[in-house]
Amino acid sequence: MNSSIPDGAAALGPMTNGEASFSGAVSPAREPLAERERLALAVAGVGVWEFEPRQRRFALDEIARRLLGLGGEPAGDLPEDTVLLTIAADDRERVREALHGAAAQGGGYDEIFRVQIAHETHWLHSIGRAPDVDGSGRLIGVCFDATAEGQALAARDLLLREMNHRIKNLFAVIGGLISLCAREAESPRALADDLGNRIAAMGRAHSLTQYTPAQNAGIERPLDLRELIEAVLEPARIGHTILIEGQALAVPTVMLTPLALIFQEWATNAAKYGALADPAGSLAVRWHTDDSGVTAIEWTEACVHTRV
How do beta strands 11-16 and 19-23 pair? Predict the structure, then answer.
């Protein structure tokens, strides 16, 4: 193999009879270039490896051994299983199949996987190809630390799973609202208005869980009960006296939608039959938490005119 490797390790030569040959010799004409290659690889923390699929053995330079947590292994080439056992169990077979697939087909190899070193999880990115045309399947490649990239991918996957979970819940809630509104609606127009108001209340409540873009877009924050009630009752404030009173109380995110729907139901009933149907009516919403941590919410309506 002509490519050089970082300081402290010899260049990897071709596999012979299942053994890796190592040589630090470089032709005089290539010495300046080889030195630059060694320096670049060392500075970048890039390890060099060679895989011989017929003998199922690896030759690793010093950096590759360190990245894989194999610094304590004896010098020389290593069995395939010894190297692959450093890879997380969930990733191991995928990497094995990719290696042998690239060797069999004479193509490229490109995988990201996890390794456990000193009780810490690191992500490595390994790239290689088969340089031979004799059908030996020998692969030569490099590996480097990709922990930041791996963590970003894991965070993205977690976000996608959470988003899918929330979308499923949202569909279930909307389905329930349609059934509820359909039982109470006196006409298609009434159904559409009632359902639209409830969905809008959920939207206003959900928007309160987000920071403004200037603060940190997309990051959920704790929601105060007062903010939630004000958001739900916002359309009813015009022309009515509404008192909202109570100490600061954070609402867990998981309780946001249920509480928003409860307050919207009460507000809808008040608009149809209670204080919010009376131009002179008033509404007071109060809450307090007792010594045991239980919070009681009081919804009090006062009507001047009785609706018949």
Answer: antiparallel
Residues 229, 267 contacting (CB under 8 angstroms): no
The rounded Cα 303 to chain-centroid distance in angstroms is: 51
According to DSSP, residue 220 is labeled: B
pLDDT tens profile 149-195? 888 888 888 888 878 877 887 787 788 778 777 877 788 888 888 78
Q: How many CA atoms lie within 13 A of 153 on its CB side?
A: 12
How many helices, marked H, and strands, marked E, lie in the chain?
Answer: 9, 13
Q: Longest C-alpha distance within the chain, in Å?
A: 104
Tens of pLDDT, residues 43-78:
778 999 999 999 999 999 999 999 999 987 777 889
Q: Hey, CA dihedral for 63, 69, 71, 76, is it positive or negative?
A: negative
Residues in the chain: 308
Taking the complete model, does pTM exceed 0.85, yes or no?
A: no
At 4, which amino acid appears? S
Which of 37, 60, 38, 57 has its CA nearest to residue 49? 60
Who's near 197: CB < 8 A, 6+ residues apart? 235, 264, 268
Mean pLDDT, the chain, integer: 79
CA separation for the pair 38, 7 (Å, rounded): 6
Question: Checking DSSP bridges between strand 282-289 and strand 241-245, what pairing results, if any?
Answer: parallel
- 290 alpha-carbon distance from chain centroid: 38
Cα–Cα distance for residue pair 248/232, rounded to 1 Å: 17
Give the whole-angstrom CA distance, residue 269 versus residue 246: 23
